[in-house]
Amino acid sequence: MKTISTVVFDLGRVLVNIDFDAFPKTLGLFTPESRRPYEKRVHPLVVRHEIGQLSLDDFLDGLHSAFAGRFGRDLLRQAWDAIICEQNEAIVPLFDEVNACCRTAVLSNTSETHWEKALAIAPLLARIPVEYHFTSFQIGAAKPDRRIYEYAIRTLRSSPDAIVFIDDLEENIRGAEQCGMRGIVYRSPEQVRLELRSIGVL
């Protein structure tokens, strides 16, 4: 079994707690019925913003139009940033164990403002070298697009099978595995610890 050199963590629901419901709730949209008319117009804007195709201003303009001018840009920005909550304290001990014995990185589908907020509320991100902060808005591709994994592999200058990727979504793990990386679907810190031990990381 090849020795693992790097453990790459997802951001949302792994290193940082997120709440997608915070976006519509901040706008006063509390029911599925109140949200449904807007979903098809909002989702493509989010995708384009998270791969850097829309600037923040253009994204907010797009949201303003998608909601037919119902919400001001300041409220839309507040609602968008409300998705990022706080550091996942439950994973900190495990992260520190891994960081003490392996190189660590973070790979996330995220926007510039969400990333800025994550950096502000999650001190453990400062323990990862800046050059190993892999974000979709900077790279121009989002998981599970193989381009984002290939970018990380090139930057890490490592054999893919020496890299473990931890993400809460199975489709993102499959994308990593198709690029030769090893994958662990995050369910809890205890479960991830056991799986890392089984491959000799801890």
Strand content: 5-15%
CATH superfamily of the largest domain: HAD superfamily/HAD-like
Major sheet description: 5 strands, parallel
Radius of gyration: 18 Å
- The first-level CATH class of the largest domain is given as Alpha Beta
- The total count of helices amounts to 10
Protein traits:
alpha/beta; Rossmann fold; 2 domains; five-stranded parallel β-sheet; two-stranded antiparallel sheet; 7 strands; 49% helix; elongated
Task: Please provide a written account of the structure.
The protein is of the alpha/beta class and 202 residues long. It has 2 domains: 125 residues, HAD superfamily/HAD-like (Rossmann fold); 63 residues. It is 49% helix and 14% strand. The protein has 10 helices and 7 strands. It has a 5-stranded parallel sheet with strand order 5-4-1-6-7, with helices on both faces. The chain has a two-stranded antiparallel ribbon with strand order 2-3. α9 links the parallel β6 and β7. α2 packs antiparallel against α3. The chain is elongated, with a radius of gyration of 18 Å. The protein starts with 5 loop residues before the first strand and ends with a helix. The model has no long low-confidence stretch (mean pLDDT 97).
